Amino acid sequence: MKFYFDGCSNTWGAELAEPEVSRYSRIVSEHFGAEEHNIARRGGSDKRVLRNLIETDLSEYDSVIVQLTRKSRTEFWCDRNKKWMQIKNPVRILKNGMMKERMNTFLDEDKKFFWKNYWKHIYTEKLGNMNQLTYYLAMRTLLKDKKHLIIGISGHGSVIQTPVDINFTNFESNSSIKFKTAPAGHPSEEGHKQIAEEIIKHIENHK
Question: What CATH number should be reported for the domain whose range is 2-70+134-205?
Answer without folding.
Answer: 3.40.50.1110
